[in-house]
Amino acid sequence: MSIESVLSKDLTSVRRSGALWGVAVCLALVAAMMAYVNVGRGAPPLREAQNAYGLLVGLIGVLVPIVAIIASYMSITGERASGGIKFLLAFPNTRRDVFVGKLLSRLGVVSAIVLFMFVAATAMTVARYGVFPFGVAVGVLAVTLLYAWAFVALSVACSSAAATRSQAIAATVGSYFVLVILNLTFRFSQVVQLVHDVILGFDPDPHLYAAFDYVSPYIAYQKAANLVYPTAMERNVFRFREEARESMPAYLSDEVSLVVFAAWLVIPLALGYLRFQRSDLQ
User: Could you list the residue ranges that cross the membrane (predicted)?
Assistant: First the structure.
C-alpha cells in the first residue's frame, strides 16, 4: 500500500508538469513530420510505410533518452532538495517504497509519452500510405519502450544517488553524452582499436571492438530494431565489411540487444538503490 501511495502522489505531481506535456506534444509533432517526409519514393505503399518506422528509429535513438532524463532526473533528488523526502518517509513509507514508487511513476509517464508519439506517427503513416505495417509498428514500439525504460532506470538511479540537483544533472547529462552522442560521432571501438592494435601491437579484431560498442543502449536499440524489421530493412549497425559480417560471433547477434537492455534495467537500479539506502537524508 505504501508503494501505491508514493506512486499515486508522484503521478499527480508529474501530470501537472507543463514542461513534460510540452515535450510530449513536440515529440509527437516531430514524429508525425518524420513519417510525412519519409523518403524512398517509388516503392510499394507497405514498404514505404515500413521505411517510415525505420526513419523514426533514427530519430527516437537521439530524442527519447532526453525525454526519459527530463522526466526522471529529479524524481528523488527533487524530494531531497525540497525536504519532501522527510514527509514521504513519515507515513510511514520505507526507502524501498519511495524508490519503487518513483521508478514506476516515471516508467509510466515516459511510456505514455512514447505511446503518444507512436500514435501520432502511425496516424500520419496510415493517412499518407493507406496501409498499417502492424508487425514493424508494434515491434518498433516494443523495443522503443525497452530503450526508454533503460534510460529511465539510469536516470532514477542517478537521482537516488545524487544529493543535489547539480549532481543529478551532471550524472544524467554526462551519461547521455557518453552513451548516445559519442556513439553518433566517436565510438568506444575506436579507442579500443587504438589500444589493441597500436599500443599493444595485437592483430586487428573488429568483433572485439564492436563488443565494446554494444555496451551502449543506443547501439543495442539499433540492433534490437533489426529483430522486427523485414530482412530488406536490416542494418549493418557495426559497419562491418562483408567478411567480418559473415563470421560475426553470437555475442554480437541482434538477440543480445535484449540482454544489454536487461543489464541497463537491473544494474543501475541496484546500485542506485543501495546508494539511496545508505544515504544521509538529513
Answer: 20-39, 51-76, 103-126, 132-156, 168-186, 256-276
- Classify residue 251 by its DSSP letter: G
What's the mean pLDDT in 119-135? Answer: 90
Distance CA 62, CA 66 (A): 7
Rounded to the nearest 10°, the torsion over CA 275, 278, 281, 282 is: -150
Q: At what angle do helices 45-72 and 165-176 cross, to 10 degrees?
A: 150
Name the residue with cell 545508505.
Answer: 278
pLDDT per position as a tens digit, 31-88:
888 777 765 556 788 888 888 888 889 888 999 999 999 989 988 888 887 777 777 7
Distance (Å, whole) CA 234 – CA 243:
17
Q: What angle do helix axes 95-129 and 2-15 make, rounded to 10 degrees?
A: 50
Q: What are phi and psi of 214, to 5 degrees?
A: -65, -15
C-alpha to C-alpha distance for 83 and 134, rounded to whole angstroms = 47
Burial class (CB in 10 A: 0-12, 13-18, 19+), 104: middle
Q: Which three cell numbers stand for residue 91?
A: 507515513
